[in-house]
Amino acid sequence: MTKYRRASRAARVLLPGAVAVALLAGCAQGSGGAASAADSTSPAGATPITGGPSDGSSGTVTPAPTGRPAPGTLLVGDFGSDTVTFVDPARGAIGSVKVGTAPYGLVVGTDGRAWVATAEGVAVVDTTTRQRLALIPYETDAGPVTTGEYRGGGMGIALAPDGRRVYVGVNVPGGNGTLEVIDTASLRVTDTVPVGRRPFDVDVSGDGSEVYATNHDSFDVTIVTAGTLEPRRVEVAPYGTEGGLGSWLKPHYTAVRPSDGKLLLPFEGERLAVVDPRTGRTTIEPMTANTHQHGATVTADGTLLTVGTGPIDPSEDRGPSLTVRTPGGAERVYPLEGPHETVAVSKDGRTAYVSGGFTRDGYWDGLSIVDLDTGDTRRLEAGSRPLGVVVL
């Protein structure tokens, strides 16, 4: 049986009053400035970082140290506990911050502020003071705030290269989503753009001129011109669209290739869809992992890393894995224990951090850490159903 046949089966912000003047003044130039380790005073009314379990279980809670995180510290979004967790790759979790219901994607700017897409709004977290500075509600009506795989609210999120805008894909259950544009100085939603259904991922071109919303349930990518906010749809369906919402063969995450700006979308460990955003044309290249693929990222030299969550059909497909694909198309596949969702890479490109949260059942509370030189993999318990992961 082929995979194709199987497819059948308004600008408001919740901001502590004492923080507003200082925060907005300090952000007047966008998020391009560097955060100072001296800026560690806890803002009045902000949610402080706490140590201990982030899943609501009992245990001793110890405040984590403030100050700029050590290089290589990880930040993960805990879909299962409404927090983000700071993780030392050698020791595990070192503290968490409450951000909002069911956080999904996250991104961190050069100023040390993290932007987290939750079901309620975009949380702004200072990674130096370990405080939630603000929660920016969506302009889009995404329905009641809920949890779970199909919850409404923010999913993919990205930051413009100049740090002046954040773009977040907002899922509207049962309908098309939106791309909301946030001004990082005023902390307000300034524009809303229609996109497709369930915008799993949001990416920005290297020069900031285009934004790409990858829409899982409508088999497409919405390409948005940043200057005019004009959207256009490009279908990305290398297996076709048979099965509609019930199909497994839909796009999940996109990586933007640095060398030419083309979009890389992995499917099933069998096909890599390479989309030229200028022409809308898609070419297909073979892949080798033979597993249902989700998260994807690309390094500066064009190496693609993508997460295999496991088989659609256990009798035909292989288990969870991490594929590392060179710019020339050679692949190395690293087996993983259990489903995972997204991947980040260390600054030196030698270590991959793969989140164990997974959007479906089968997730676990931790990360797999893969040595890309030796292939050695170890599991590190950290967070609660972690989905997004970034290296600070």
What does this structure look like?
It is a single chain. By secondary structure, this protein is mostly beta strands. The chain has a single domain (3-391), classed as YVTN repeat-like/Quinoprotein amine dehydrogenase (Methylamine Dehydrogenase, Chain H). The chain is 4% helix and 40% strand. The chain is built from 2 helices and 29 strands. The protein has a 5-stranded antiparallel sheet, with no helix packed on it. Strands 4-3-2-29 form a 4-stranded antiparallel sheet, with no helix packed on it. The radius of gyration is 20 Å and the shape is globular. The protein starts with a helix and ends with a strand.
Short descriptors:
29 strands; 392 residues; single chain; globular; 2 helices; mainly beta; disordered N terminus; Methylamine Dehydrogenase, Chain H; five-stranded antiparallel beta sheet; 4% helix; four-stranded antiparallel beta sheet; 40% strand
Write a concise synopsis of the structure shown.
This protein is mainly beta and 392 residues long.
Report low-confidence residues grouped into runs of 5 or more. 1-13, 15-63
CATH class type: Mainly Beta
Oligomer: single chain
Number of domains: 1
Output mean pLDDT. 87
CATH architecture: 7 Propeller
Question: Can you lay out the helices and strands and say which pair or pack?
Answer:
Blueprint: H1 3-6, H2 17-26, E1 47-48, E2 74-78, E3 83-88, E4 92-98, E5 106-108, E6 113-117, E7 121-126, E8 131-137, E9 153-159, E10 165-171, E11 178-183, E12 188-194, E13 199-204, E14 210-215, E15 220-225, E16 231-235, E17 255-256, E18 263-267, E19 271-275, E20 282-286, E21 292-298, E22 304-310, E23 321-325, E24 331-335, E25 343-345, E26 351-355, E27 366-371, E28 377-381, E29 386-391
